[in-house]
C-alpha cells in the first residue's frame, strides 16, 4: 500500500521554489540560445524585444511603446531611431493629432519579425525527449500558468493555439 506523504505549507513553498528555479533556469538558458541564434539577423537584444512587441498592422504611439516596453520616452526614441535606420519601422503622424508620432512595422520589419518568431517559437529539442502523455500534461499545466492573452495583444500573424491539435 502506498504511504501518503504528509504535506504542509513549508513543503509546498519548497516545492514551488524548486519548480520556479528549474523553469527560470531553463528559460534563461533557452533565451541565451535564442539571442545567439537571431544575431545573424543583425538585431540586438533590445531590438529583438521591441520587434517582437510591435504587432503587424498596428500603429503604436511612442508613449504607448514606452509603457509597453517599460522604459522612458528617450529610450523609446533611441530604439525606434535604430530600428528606423535598419528599415524595420517607420514613424508616421497620428491620424487625429499631428503632435503625436506613431510607429509601425515596415514591410522589411514584418518579414524579419516573422523569421525571428519562427526561430524563437521552435520548440527546444529537450521536449522531444518527453512522452506524449508528459507533453499533454505540460501543455495543460503551462496553460494554467499564463491565461490566454486578450485578442488585442495577439498579433495578426499569431493564431490562437488549438489544444486539440496535440
TrEMBL record:
Compositionally biased tracts (Basic and acidic residues): 148-157
Region (Disordered), start-end ranges: 142-166
Cross-referenced InterPro entries: HTH_MarR-typ, MarR/SlyA-like, WH-like_DNA-bd_sf, WH_DNA-bd_sf
Domain HTH marR-type per the UniProt entry, residue ranges: 12-147
Pfam families according to UniProt: MarR
Highest taxon in the source lineage: Bacteria
Designated name of the protein: HTH marR-type domain-containing protein
Source species: Actinoallomurus oryzae
Taxonomic lineage from the root: Bacteria, Bacillati, Actinomycetota, Actinomycetes, Streptosporangiales
Amino acid at each position: 500500500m502506498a504511504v501518503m506523504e504528509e504535506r504542509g505549507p513549508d513543503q509546498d513553498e519548497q516545492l514551488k521554489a524548486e519548480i520556479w528555479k528549474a523553469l527560470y533556469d531553463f528559460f534563461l538558458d533557452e533565451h541565451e540560445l535564442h539571442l545567439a541564434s537571431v544575431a545573424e539577423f543583425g538585431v540586438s537584444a533590445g531590438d529583438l524585444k521591441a520587434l517582437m512587441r510591435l504587432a503587424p498592422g498596428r500603429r503604436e504611439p511612442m508613449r504607448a511603446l514606452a509603457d509597453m516596453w517599460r522604459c522612458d520616452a528617450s529610450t523609446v526614441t533611441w530604439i525606434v531611431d535604430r530600428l528606423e535606420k535598419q528599415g524595420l519601422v517607420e514613424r508616421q503622424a497620428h491620424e487625429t493629432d499631428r503632435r503625436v508620432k506613431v510607429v509601425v512595422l515596415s514591410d522589411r520589419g514584418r518579414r524579419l519579425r516573422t523569421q525571428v518568431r519562427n526561430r524563437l517559437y521552435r520548440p527546444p529539442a529537450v521536449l522531444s525527449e518527453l512522452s506524449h502523455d508528459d507533453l499533454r500534461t505540460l501543455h495543460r499545466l503551462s496553460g494554467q500558468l499564463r491565461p490566454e492573452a486578450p485578442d488585442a495583444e495577439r498579433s495578426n500573424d499569431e493564431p490562437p493555439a488549438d489544444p486539440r491539435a496535440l
